[in-house]
Amino acid sequence: MTAAKRKLHFNTFGEVIAEIEKLRAGYTMTSGKWNLEQMCFHLRSPIPQPLKAVPVEQHPQPNADLVKRFQHYADHDAPLPGITAPPASEPPEIPPADVIDDLIARLKSADAFNEPFVDLGPRGPVPVEVYKPFLRGHCAHHLSYLIPTQS
Length: 151
Prior knowledge:
The protein is mostly helical. It has one domain. It has helices spanning 13-25, 36-44, 64-76, 99-112, 128-143; strands at residues 27-29, 117-119, 125-127, 146-148. The radius of gyration is 15 Å and the shape is globular. The mean pLDDT is 91.
């Protein structure tokens, strides 16, 4: 684990999925602490299944703090300084065997989601135009700790 973290940025979910597939074929780790399966476990946590829309007639008030955090990820492919992951998103030592396929399915679901707000339960609604770039930035941040061994 001596290589430097890569700089990644994804403009589409297809790019994210292609990178995951390259890494699934083989990778080396940089300075990170999680393997690919652990990252996929963590990365799927902010993508509830199924994704739920918030009816526009409810005039949702997005959680301003969450939107700020998500927007920072979208703009910088990294979390705000001092932000830590919720305990439930911390991966186990050995994640479920289907975790990579599950993340890919969730990313495809997020890509196909076309409502103005996504309902994130107790964290509140988030505008989809902030949510989707957040997901791609979140993936870029974590996957940048792995280097594909095949091109």
